[in-house]
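Lab notebook, page 48
Experiment: co-folding of the full assembly
Goal: obtain a model of how the components sit together before planning crosslinking
Operator: M.T.
Materials (sequences as entered):
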Amino acid sequence: MSQKATIHDVAHHARVSVSSVSRALNNYPHVSEALKMRVVEAAEELDYQPAFLAHSLRRGETNSIGFLVGSIANPVISTIYEAAAEALATNGYAVTLVSSRNQADLDSACLRLLASRQVSGLIVSSASESPEPARRFIQEANIPTVMLDRAPVAGERVFAVQSDHESSIREAVRHLVDNGHRHIGFIGGPQGFYPTQQRFRAYQEALAEARIPARAELIRFASFTETDAYAEALLLMRNRPLPTALIVAGNIILIGALGALQARQLAVGRDIALVACDDIHLTQLYRPPVTAIRRDLNLLGKTAARLLLQGIANNGNRTDRVIKLPTQLVIRESSDYLCDG
Amino acid sequence: MSQKATIHDVAHHARVSVSSVSRALNNYPHVSEALKMRVVEAAEELDYQPAFLAHSLRRGETNSIGFLVGSIANPVISTIYEAAAEALATNGYAVTLVSSRNQADLDSACLRLLASRQVSGLIVSSASESPEPARRFIQEANIPTVMLDRAPVAGERVFAVQSDHESSIREAVRHLVDNGHRHIGFIGGPQGFYPTQQRFRAYQEALAEARIPARAELIRFASFTETDAYAEALLLMRNRPLPTALIVAGNIILIGALGALQARQLAVGRDIALVACDDIHLTQLYRPPVTAIRRDLNLLGKTAARLLLQGIANNGNRTDRVIKLPTQLVIRESSDYLCDG
DNA sequence: AAAGTGTCGGAAATCGTTTTCAGACTTCGA
DNA sequence: TCGAAGTCTGAAAACGATTTCCGACACTTT
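Observation: model returned without errors.
Model output:
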């Protein structure tokens, strides 16, 4: 019935010129109140919305930003996304979400797709550490970009928001050592994955500080699937002496590890102390509740959005290039006991 | 350095006209091999990619589809999304995701935003049942639309994909009744929420079939927050006699209810039988594992994508308008015992 | 009275494509 | 050999906005 009205229809209906309509609707100076009123009225009457494509084509910006993730099915990512998207939406941006399905080699293609859609900004939180082509693309595309909990990329308009994984991991190791543990296992995500690298480094440094030799066979890395994490956990548990404590990096790993421990009949919080790196619902509802590193995912998303918006607006002015947000170790029953070993 | 090359640059570089470039690149008939070769070569040399905005403006379609959700932080939704988005991506569509943040009154605005971006299709899985304005908008916008696990909407190009919640709920009630339960509680999502309505109806019918009078005080509805679900569960547990079994509709409700049961010192699988409506990781890892209704979320997403693509292509031809996918009750220890009450 | 200032309309350029139209050239059958 | 049909190609018109340029007023101000 009502084919979408064009700016010409509005002009005709308000008995003014198209240029006046454009000026009135975009709040340009030198336009009288009376004319503005007439135009706005006519626009509302015809339910006029400027054609997005024509508008963007002429203006040269799409008011939409691209969000690249490894998997949106990861509850941590989706929570961050929700927060960021809300902040962006209130600033008039729509966001197109692309998932690389945890395949790092797809990153480049995904970014290229987003760039071809001429997004005004980019938030990158792809699964594995982006390989060289993807990083180079970000550098050269000259699109304002925020790396979200990922390694920073050199570039004029590239920013980064990170969580301070290291300090909490160090605190966790100290906590375990204080409770008498000397065989502390570690299961990380993929080795190229930035948070995994940070956590692993902190784990090693904290062990060194406590003068505890790292046992290589108690260290494993898993991909982003529960079944793989399960398998790696089982492999780790084959070693003797068994670890008396275990740090699992990430919620997927946690799920796999819990399954493996149950299969091995190892009681969390008695036979083995457990520390998780994401404070998801499971950690609080599990019996016993499991110690975890909490971070404000909402703040993380909001900060990424804010930084990106600044990067788009300031056009390269001075802003913080990388922001590191705090984390907090929440000690629960899974690790809050003295090791008798 | 290299500003994006336009079709004119390619034309100039290949020493042909712009129209020929367009024809060659879009595989139109009546273009000689020689010319095509020259054009393709020049295009590659300049790394030419057609400008999305201009392309879409002229063609009248954006090759992007809008996805409206209540909250992407819900793991069930995000899993479905991931599957649908992958299917759409392989068909050349990008998807812009909009969350109404579980506020039903925002649905209309979100849809309007998506429509103004001139999406070629719409998948709607907003949180609560869309109120009248949103439904009317979908009807009138004449955009191919798939309602995902939501009430179907009358309209020429509106389709629906649903899960068969009823049959599994009926099976669950029968299962509980067979085990001797006669006081079976029910906690649903918001009353306007379509899956909640279906589950609740099935719950009532199954009770009636078993000639068990429904106790109104054992029925509660919660919003989409864990704290609210927690509160509602506590309220439900105030009644005497206590229910010996509980059906919780949805993963958020499950989390709240588990917290409440723990607070009340009620042992799941002994004091009270528990049946959940989403088979998330938690249900399998919880001790005891909790009985849940499983459905193929991947299939759900893929089916929605397929239906939408057909709706876009067939332009109103005959296809299935609504598809109902099966569900399956997975009985675990939380309910697999005889009621002694 | 001349000059400046604010307001508005009309025409036209622009963004980068796709699509239509018409002309030029080949091929082919009568 | 001539017209018709078919193949190739380029020029120009869309698509729907924003933006620029210029001219026409109606007011002030000097």
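Interpretation: Residues 297-314 of chain B form the longest helix (18 residues).
Next step: discuss with group before ordering constructs.
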